[in-house]
């Protein structure tokens, strides 16, 4: 969408004032009037587009916000804590990134998670609920495995089980994550083959292959390069503008809604 230059905005502002006192024709030639009228028409088109897009986003955000347990007024940007100092250029998203929701969503919640982290487990339902309730596929959720060193080897082992179950049916990724978040699965004892109707040979072969481990190594390397020191860590990505914001911890959903709203307003 084209934007008006500072000069064009000044012309429109001046014209509006002149029209208000009825002296436009005194100072503008016919060609100048045509040019200025075109600028006015362009300005109106741009403003209408912004209002339409903003209305849709605000409707979605309002619906999301109503789900939050926090009924206090949403914090203004200046009241929010300072964002962690992470190297956001290291966030890597591609077609292989586990994604829940609309692939073409305006915003992505990129979560760096650890299956041995109790805060991650408590937090798992938050991005899923937000994605499920957002209007028009506004938000999607992207999962990154980020096992912390002191949770090894179990954190990596559990991630491998999730990925291998998902290799046979992609829906299994999110079934497992949801069950884990609801304390409905214990990776240490669960019969993954029976629970998710897996081909046992293919599943057990997957557990021993290097391809899954390479996927995990890639996520781990990204987490280190990003500077993740604790989980859950979430990077909110505006896929339209490229802006990224960081939220650390298992925070209430309204913090994500507020941040998305701030990012949306900033882009207008």
Automatic annotation (TrEMBL):
<dbReference type="InterPro" id="IPR012336">
    <property type="entry name" value="Thioredoxin-like_fold"/>
</dbReference>
<dbReference type="InterPro" id="IPR036249">
    <property type="entry name" value="Thioredoxin-like_sf"/>
</dbReference>
<protein>
    <submittedName>
        <fullName>Thioredoxin domain-containing protein</fullName>
    </submittedName>
</protein>
<dbReference type="Pfam" id="PF13462">
    <property type="entry name" value="Thioredoxin_4"/>
</dbReference>
<feature type="domain" description="Thioredoxin-like fold">
    <location>
        <begin position="96"/>
        <end position="244"/>
    </location>
</feature>
